[in-house]
Amino acid sequence: MEISVEVNGVMQNHDVEPRTLLVHYVREVVGLTGTNIGCDTSSCGACTLHIDGEAVKSCTMLAVQADGLKVTTIEGLANGDEMHPMQTAFMECHALQCGYCTPGMVMASVSLLDEVPKPTEAEVREGLEGNLCRCTGYHNIVKAVLSASGQDVSEQAVSVGGGQ
Ligand code: FES
Ligand code: FES
After folding, report:
1. Residue 82 CB contacts under 8 Å (≥ 6 apart), including other chains
2. Which ligand is nearest to the CA of 23?
3. 117 pLDDT above the threshold of 70
4. pLDDT tens, 54-94?
5. Is the pLDDT of residue 8 over 50?
6. What is the spatial distance between Cα 47 and Cα 60, in angstroms, rounded to a whole number?
7. How far is the CA of 49 from the centre of ligand 2 (A)?
8. Across the chain, what does the average pLDDT equal?
9. Is 46 in the pocket of ligand 2 (CB under 6 A)?
10. Which atom of ligand 1 lies closest to the CA of 37?
11. Which of 33, 53, 126, 136 has the most CB atoms within 10 Å of its CB?
């Protein structure tokens, strides 16, 4: 099927098989491999990107369902050489280790702050519960999201939650 999808501001027109998952389309057809695949059960969130500004697990959607829509991947988040504030916050708060979950975690976090600009720690944990991380124990990820929302993340201000 012919589809037209705007990916990171660039129109993409391709002939895809109807069964192609959006994550495979983005990685293998468009060639943007920042969006990761971490499971085959729709549970890890590594494949999270934005469709018309909302976070979506791209392994749960067919490429043909994105026809006519706007997709933003982790590659499209920065403004040229300038990182998105969420990317900066992840870097400054040491919110990644292996980095495999990070693109999806960042995309989900940006979407979370769009919906709840000043979330509580509990709201961040709840908002990111669909994104799994094997490395960090989540604390620094939560800290990064709170920091990106402009809140004080000094050790005194954020309690250690002990997992998600
Ligand atoms: S690869 Fe999509 S949720 Fe795991
Ligand atoms: S940093 Fe390794 S899975 Fe999250």
Report:
1. none
2. 1
3. yes
4. 999 999 999 999 999 999 999 999 999 999 999 999 999 99
5. yes
6. 9
7. 17
8. 95
9. no
10. 1
11. 136
**Cβ neighbours of residue 132 under 8 Å, at least 6 residues apart?**
38, 43, 44, 45, 46, 101
d(CA 61, CA 154): 39
- Say if ligand 2 is within 6 A of residue 97 CB: yes
> Which pLDDT value is given to residue 154?
82
Token pair 């934005």 is found at: 50
Strand bridging mode 70-72 / 2-7? parallel
> CB-hemisphere CA count at 13 Å for 14?
22
Of 63, 49, 70, give the one whose Cα is nearest residue 15. Answer: 63
Q: Which ligand is nearest to the CA of 100?
A: 2
pLDDT at 157 over 90: no
Q: Does 138 contact ligand 2 (Cβ within 6 A)?
A: no
